[in-house]
Amino acid sequence: MEAVTYTKSDIDALVGEHFQQYIGSAEREPLENQVIVEAGVDSILLVMILTDLFVSVNLDIGDAKVKLVDINTLADVSALVCSMLELDATPKPS
Questions:
Q1: Which of 1, 12, 87, 90 lies 20 to 30 angstroms, CA to CA, from 80?
Q2: How many CB atoms sit inside 10 A of residue 46's CB?
Q3: Taking the alpha carbons of 69, 37, 27, 19 in that order, is the dihedral positive or negative?
Q4: Residues 17, 53, 46, CA angle at the centre, nearest 5°?
């Protein structure tokens, strides 16, 4: 099986898609502005979304060294996945 290579924008899109699947939101705010709690995501739903997201990129959620209280926005989720994939999640200047 060939390894899949992701970019930060790929991960951003996957995060947005996974959250939209679970919460049904069609809002297209910038990723860093999407606040998880305001979108109606509780800790149980967050774990479900993260598990599904991690499976989709072949990561083990057990390897994530993060507290759920530290994940406040979709950008935080994207940064977590990028760090686990060893991608540079630092936004590039425009």
A1: 1
A2: 17
A3: positive
A4: 90
